[in-house]
Design goal:
With 369 residues, the protein is an alpha/beta fold. It folds into 2 domains: 1-299, Rossmann fold (3-Layer(aba) Sandwich), CATH 3.40.50; 315-364, no CATH class. 41% of the residues lie in helices and 19% in strands. It has 18 helices and 11 strands. It has a 6-stranded mixed sheet with strand order 4-3-5-6-11-10, sandwiched between helices. Strands 2-1-7-8-9 form a 5-stranded parallel sheet. Helix 1 (10-23) runs parallel beside helix 12 (222-238) and helix 8 (144-157) crosses helix 13. The longest helix has 17 residues, at 222-238.
Amino acid sequence: MKYLDEFSNPELAKRLLDSIHEIATRRWAIMEVCGGQTHTIIRHGIDQLLPDEVEMIHGPGCPVCVTPLEIIDKALAIAAMPGVIFCSFGDMLRVPGSSQDLFRIKSAGGDVRVVYSPLDALTLARENPDKQVVFFGIGFETTAPANAMTVYQAKRLGIGNFSLLVSHVLVPPAIAAIMESPECRVQGFLAAGHVCSVMGTAEYPMLAEKYRVPIVVTGFEPLDILAGIRRTVMQLEAGSHVVENAYPRAVTDQGNEPARAMLRDVFEVTDRTWRGIGMIPRSGWRLSEAYRDFDAEARFNVAGMHTDESSLCRSGEVLQGLIKPHECAAFGKECTPRNPLGATMVSSEGACAAYYLYRRLELTAVSHV
């Protein structure tokens, strides 16, 4: 199939791998920011086909994984309230809060619904004027425009029984936070192509220059990943640190200007807590003053809730690239997809879920025998 088979061509993949083997002369650590890229790398065994000199570090680019525990608990509290229809994408329903998840709220009688677009939630609000309809708006810059448009439409149409529980985060501040960590080993980045398709690449050159790291915007198919790795290794070997766009079929320097204009109108930048990592200054969005009436945290008075992470779960270190998932003592034991301790095990883009799904624990154990 077009855009699937052609970007999974094994002959072309071998050529790219051979080229990476030829050009890598020193040890390099490269972080793929996006969880979708992580799953492609693990599923296809790309990290095991690379030369020993090239190590892939899994980054914090899974939107479900970085949604903080306190936001999950706020969602659970709102969803359990009478008269509320709580709407979410399906990948959030099994993400654990402090003591339960949205599935358990639903089984206890809460009106929790899976939708395929935030506009579906707005339709529900119009159809149920006697209910409060809340949409759980999480994610990076990729999902934010649709959520912004939904709030914009709610205000324009005067739909007052709709609100948004916001937990949007931004990639560039996360890259800066990773690079400023004293334990950082990252020497280059594969940037998330879908984020850049919305936001463009203008925010990345200053990061590449400040931290002297190459940043290559990359897609999600096997050949996309290998081409991005090859370009990054070439820069590292040459001592270069610039931004390259290896995903031109989807990304332009300017990004999607109408989407960016909508984001500027509906949201404003704020400090944001990342699950397992902590607070990163100016790393998220909240509703701007003009749309503050649609803020679910304020509407349902849950803004003051605070929670503590599991002491067993090391997902924060996984998200920062400090450890691989199997290096957590709870991995595959106390923490499994059926009984996850952290979102990195339950999310479809989580690094722990990728290692568990593709049996990487067994492969790793065999390699150390």
